[in-house]
Amino acid sequence: MDKAKVTIYDVADKAGVAISTVSRVLNGSPEVSPDTRRRVQAAIEALEFRPDRTAKSLAQRQTDSIAVAIPSSTSQFYNELLKGVKDCLREHDIDLLLCNLGSGAPLQTLWRFLTRGAVDALMLASLPVDDRLSHELRMLHAPVILIGAESPNFDCFHWDDEAGAHAAVIHLIQNGHRRIGLVTANVWDSKLADTRANTLRVAGYRRALEESGIGFDADLVQSGRTLKHAGFSEEAGYEAMQKLLAIDPSISAVFASSDVQAIGAWKALREAGSSVGSDFAIVGYDDIKISRYIGLSSVDQEMQQIGYRASELLLRRVAEGNQANPISEHIIPQLNVRESSDFKWKP
């Protein structure tokens, strides 16, 4: 393993403990049993992990908080991101200022938040950055990192959502499915913040079908009525799945643009008498924690790890005076196949 890339996640995995436990060991907390402490320290030595020294620099600059602006503070997807952020900030004794942008008027909410006082650094998630927003963010004179968006003016972590969706649908096709529905959010509502990612997932779905000689059927692309969380919710997934079953009862698989939508679709299928994992396949997107426990196949964006790494970079920018050239990291999501789709379907 590249020593420069060893993170606290690698240590936790090798020691078989939680990230928070590794953090306690690193900070000398007494709330760790001797046996656990020895396992963690052994993993640290085996991996030659060395904690980042950003915290010392930050202390010298008297920085004690960073701001994170996200579309929803209750969405499981963004909670995964925040877990990584909080793990990193806890190590450095830095406070988190949270701005819940909402899906109705995110820009106005962001401006209100920023005008209440200066921030040392800002992490902004899932909000497209046009010229005006780029100008306003530069006027903060503080480091800014974008999550799920791109700009040449700021550090960025962004995903190839089309590739992630393509992988999910190709998996379903290779398992014998030909009538594959898509549960999506309402990408035509311009008020919603995170429409670009969802549009790309629709494009990946369509490309996978057409590459495999399966015609794209717009009737098999459905969204729910519920707009909570910009349409990425269990309720919306449930409603969209009901529509799909009414339009074409012969569909045998569905790809959902988020795991929470997939969970809602699963409920609709169960009520319709279908058995997910044997006569119907579902694949979600995001790979939130609950998906690993219920056996839902999902496209993994490594949100917790990205939250941690983005926080480390943001703190480093503060410590170094934000002088370095921006970096842009393009991430290819990976499909994790589980029981919900891991079977061959025969018509």
Please explain how this structure is put together.
Helix 1 (about 10-15) packs across helix 3 (about 35-45), helix 4 packs across helix 13 and helix 10 (about 235-245) crosses helix 11 (about 260-270). It is globular and about 60 Å long. It has helices spanning about 10-15, 20-25, 35-45, 55-60, 75-90, 105-115, 130-140, 160-175, 195-210, 235-245, 260-270, 290-295, 305-320; strands at about 65-70, 95-100, 120-125, 145, 155-160, 180-185, 220-225, 255, 280-285, 295-300, 330, 335. It is an alpha/beta fold. Among the domains are: about 1-50, 434 Repressor (Amino-terminal Domain) (Orthogonal Bundle), CATH 1.10.260.40; about 160-300, Rossmann fold (3-Layer(aba) Sandwich), CATH 3.40.50. The strands form 2 sheets. Strands 2-1-3-4-5-11 form a 6-stranded parallel beta sheet, with helices on both faces. Strands 7-6-8-9-10-12 form a 6-stranded mixed beta sheet, sandwiched between helices. Strand 3 (about 120-125), helix 7 and strand 4 form a beta-alpha-beta unit. The chain contains 13 helices and 12 strands.
Quick tags:
347 residues; alpha/beta; 434 Repressor (Amino-terminal Domain); Rossmann fold; 13 helices; 16% strand
